[in-house]
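Query structure, 422 tokens:
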């Protein structure tokens, strides 16, 4: 099987980005936290910090004990996204980027005339050089090359940091035996326990397992997909469809009283609404979940007429807020989700509002004209915030909370700065 995939994984990306942007951090242990609080956790650690046992998820207070000289810095998501696009451009200058998979991962399909081992290795060296020249020497990448994307991803993990590994078909499966089960892409804690239950306790036994056994262990076709990928076969991606858009936020102490928390809910709603319109979708449900400071949890969902209108969504948020129990109780966390999404182009508007107005001989404006006006206002707001930032114009319900719930970067989702930037 020919080499067909080249995978690029940026090492300790958030921490490396901070060392790139702040020269005094270079060569020093760095932990990146979402907020500057001892109770927060590190979402990234530099390799200097990892040498002290600090990893993703380490509590900030514990990180300081493990490494007294560590520098804890607050995450700068917008800067990371800007840097990410520069890195994509640097890779693109060497070979076409087939797909960006996350903020720190991307892969390239190798054309048929560029599949000789020496050629692929030279491309990898060119990528590393382009990153250093076009972006900076403090952003390192580990590159894997293999007969399929899954194996290329595994290869990129096996020689970190700043590594390069080529997996040939003749190397399989022995080259993977050095890994732990949890190192395998697609094997989490729960899946590891299921594999143990089927007599698979290491990567060697995983590689030797038959296709039917893996299908049974996974309980789905994912087991078949892994069996094929382990043997170098190219397996097409499973098409996924977006079903919801949402945001959540753990409230700072000053935002926990009901009035301030209500404003945060409106900001989350406006962020989700902007993402909804960016994807060309309409929401048919709105749900809110609250976690109270003194314990307890409440959640509710309402069905709504398919919409992406900012004012309509704001009214739904206020309606759900009034339904919550313990009206005076301070909040710890707020989550909201716009669900049951449909594509805007596939939606047929309801005729009932217009029929009711005609039957009752109402003098007010027809519903379609009112909808058109609201749509025009929402579209104008989106254009302004896209150019000048979300704080330039917003619905009044979010007033006082615009600094709360800043941009976050989740795995597999790279925020669009035109949509997410504050």
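Result returned for the query:
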């Amino acid at each position: 099987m020919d080499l067909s995939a080249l995978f690029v994984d940026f090492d300790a990306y958030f921490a490396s980005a901070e060392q790139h942007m702040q020269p005094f951090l270079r060569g020093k242990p760095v932990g990146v936290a979402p907020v500057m609080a001892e109770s927060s956790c590190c979402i990234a650690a530099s390799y200097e910090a990892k040498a002290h046992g600090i990893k993703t998820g380490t509590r900030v207070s514990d990180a300081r004990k493990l490494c007294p000289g560590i520098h804890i810095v607050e995450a700068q998501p917008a800067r990371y996204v800007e840097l990410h696009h520069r890195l994509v451009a640097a890779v693109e200058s060497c070979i076409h980027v087939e797909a960006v998979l996350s903020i720190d991962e991307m892969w390239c399909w190798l054309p048929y005339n560029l599949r000789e081992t020496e050629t692929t290795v030279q491309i990898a060296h060119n990528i590393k050089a382009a990153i250093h020249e076009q972006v900076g020497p403090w952003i390192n990448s580990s590159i894997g090359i293999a007969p399929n994307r899954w194996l290329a991803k595994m290869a990129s993990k096996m020689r970190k940091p700043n590594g390069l590994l080529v997996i040939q078909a003749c190397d399989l499966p022995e080259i993977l035996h050095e890994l732990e089960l949890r190192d395998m892409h697609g094997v989490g804690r729960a899946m590891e326990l299921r594999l143990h239950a089927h007599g698979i306790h290491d990567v060697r036994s995983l590689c030797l397992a038959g296709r039917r056994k893996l299908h049974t262990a996974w309980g789905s076709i994912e087991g078949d997909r892994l069996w094929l990928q382990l043997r170098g076969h190219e397996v097409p991606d499973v098409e996924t469809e977006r079903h919801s858009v949402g945001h959540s936020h753990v409230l700072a102490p000053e935002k926990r009283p009901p009035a301030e928390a209500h404003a945060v809910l409106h900001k989350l709603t406006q962020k989700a609404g902007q993402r909804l319109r960016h994807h060309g979708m309409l929401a048919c449900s709105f749900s809110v979940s609250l976690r109270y400071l003194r314990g307890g949890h409440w959640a509710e969902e309402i069905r709504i007429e398919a919409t992406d209108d900012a004012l309509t969504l704001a009214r739904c948020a206020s309606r759900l807020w009034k339904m919550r129990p313990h009206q005076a109780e301070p909040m710890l966390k707020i989550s909201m989700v716009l669900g049951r999404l449909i594509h805007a182009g596939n939606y047929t508007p309801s005729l009932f509002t217009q029929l009711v107005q005609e039957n009752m001989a109402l003098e007010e404006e027809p519903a379609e004209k009112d909808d058109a006006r609201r749509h025009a206002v929402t579209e104008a707001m989106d254009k302004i915030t896209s150019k000048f930032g979300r704080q330039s114009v917003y619905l009044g319900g979010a007033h006082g909370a615009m600094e709360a719930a800043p941009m976050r970067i989740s795995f597999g989702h790279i925020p669009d700065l035109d949509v997410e930037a504050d």
